[in-house]
Specification:
By secondary structure, the chain is an alpha+beta fold. Helices cover 14% and strands 32% of the residues. A hairpin with a 2-residue loop joins strand 8 and strand 9.
Length: 311
């Protein structure tokens, strides 16, 4: 986690493999904020089985409006509906004897004074039985000091349901059509967890637990944002090189690539430096991957030249 904080998203180009083959799935963006990205592009096969709303806000309002309607309007369609406050007896059939006994033992163990612990039975709103890509706005717990990495296995407790998953961590930038993937959830940051889960209608609190030898430990908490399969989360990598000859706005950069063919392949992309300079690749130099770059201002010898790629 400390290394990622010092050198965020930086990767090395392998010596035994061309960069154009190693990073064939990545592409460059002129501007992360304004450049277009099709949300339907290169979707995983699991997307064919999940549910997507045409208008999530309207679907949520309709589901809650149906819950507030009086039962008398549906009595001719659903004779099993009962008025609020009515005492009923529920009978479950087809339950295996072993599972029924285990459920009873668990209830007796959790009770006090020889009485069984109560069980809560709740209903779901419309569409909450379907699976989708659910987003949670979370922040790391103050008491959890261990690293919380991207795709770590967590247990989610939303107040009514408990389920497990491996969330993808991304930023929570408002009014953005693209979001950058984060490798870790850091203390004091508010990020978004995205994972396949049952649909939840916001607002709803969520607690995220990490499994450990002693049981479950609270790792993060937050709120349900809603279901949005079209949320674009991009993974970024940064290729770095170092200027070994500098003359005003021109620099000879090496160690970013290892052959001139890679330099020509990535030549259309914009290069930038950690001191805020921006420029472009002019041409390859020699046979070992060095290149000539031109920038918009004077480049310093101790600067680092970078190229950003996304997928």
């Amino acid at each position: 986690e400390d290394e990622d904080l010092d050198f965020p998203d930086e990767v090395d180009v392998p010596v035994d493999q061309p960069a154009r083959q190693r990073f064939v799935k990545y592409r460059g963006l002129k501007s992360f904020r304004t450049s277009p990205w099709d949300p339907k592009e290169s979707l995983p096969y699991e997307y064919a089985r999940i549910f997507a709303f045409e208008n999530p806000t309207r679907a949520q309002k309709q589901a809650k409006a149906k819950l507030r309607q009086p039962v008398a309007q549906f009595s001719h369609l659903r004779p099993d509906l009962v008025q609020r406050g009515t005492h009923v007896t529920l009978v479950f059939t087809g339950v295996p004897v072993a599972e029924a006994e285990a459920l009873r033992s668990r209830a007796m163990a959790g009770g006090r004074g020889g009485a069984a612990a109560p069980y809560a039975i709740f209903g779901l709103l419309q569409h909450e039985t379907k699976m989708s890509l659910v987003n949670f706005s979370v922040h790391k717990s103050q008491s959890y000091e261990d690293p919380l990495a991207n795709k770590d296995e967590l247990v989610f407790y939303t107040g009514t349901r408990i389920f497990g998953g491996r969330p993808i961590i991304s930023d929570s930038a408002p009014n953005a059509d693209k979001h950058r993937n984060h490798k870790f959830l850091r203390q004091g940051e508010s990020c978004t967890f995205s994972l396949y889960a049952p649909i939840h209608h916001a607002p709803l609190p969520v607690l995220c637990f990490k499994r450990e030898r002693g049981g479950l430990r609270l790792a993060a908490s937050g709120l349900v944002k809603g279901s949005d399969p079209d949320r674009v989360v991009l993974k970024r990598i940064v290729l770095t090189g170092y200027p070994h000859k500098v003359h005003k706005t021109k620099a000879y950069v090496r160690y970013m690539f290892h052959n001139p063919s890679d330099v020509r392949w990535f030549q259309p992309l914009e290069v930038w430096t950690k001191y805020g300079r921006r420029g472009k690749i002019r041409e390859p130099v020699g046979t070992h991957g060095s290149m000539k770059c031109v920038f918009d201002a004077v480049v310093q010898q101790r600067d680092t030249v970078c190229i950003s790629l996304y997928k």
